[in-house]
Protein 1
Amino acid sequence: MAVIEWKKCYEVGIATFDDEHHALVGVINDLYTALREKRGDDALNELLAVLVEYTKKHFEHEEHHMDKYKYPEIVEHKQAHILLKNRIIDFQQQVSSGKTGLSPELMSFLREWLLEHIVETDKKFGAFLLQHSVYDCGPPAI
């Protein structure tokens, strides 16, 4: 069972970003599976590293298009990206150093943050792009 079942309502209307969001959901689901199966810290560290890399690439891709099309809420959106990226890196460092393992609380945070961010914040950006007749933002970055 996945922690996040992808639903059409999560789509922002831009296939590139929907594909990237779907990939991020996949990594979070992989983390959840690793947690449930009680895999070791090495597996968790590897999956957290993938999540950090995917998140970084996805955020850079979105922000590039925010700059390119002069998105009016770019500052707030970038701030949300920074907060999540820092939180994930912090979790990764804690797991790597042995201070903590992957926990249900972390999974809950990732699930809630990602879905809230997609549904509330990214959907606004997707609508903005569609209003400006932007339907394609190139191949997925992740």
Note: The mean pLDDT is 89.
Protein 2
Amino acid sequence: MDASVRPNMQAYLATLCRDAGCPWVVVGGVEDHVHVAADLGKKLRSIDLIAHIKKESSSWIKKQGNAYHRFYWQDGYALFSFGAIQRDDVEQYIRNQEEHHRKKTFQEELLSFLKRYEIPYDERYIWD
């Protein structure tokens, strides 16, 4: 998604999360992916939040002009948990995505996370 609509999309994603019951949320990203860190509270399941924000934000962006009428999120997603003590570091990481991705692509980043945390994967199924 291009830089002209990205801040509005990120704000919309944050609003969707807060409206769904997330007491804390930070959103960031670049043209080819988005990062959302959120406190799910006690009643919200991550899969339900992801499905909700993908559906609602897809509908929203298609109303932002002809350039987005074919927009869709990829089917998959990556989900990582972190503790309260890591919150500031995670927020800083998300807010600095443009700087971060000058050095490492999204694909390189995801593969490094999967390897670092020893998460098994099959590369045939992680890229749309």
Note: Residues 6-100 form one domain.
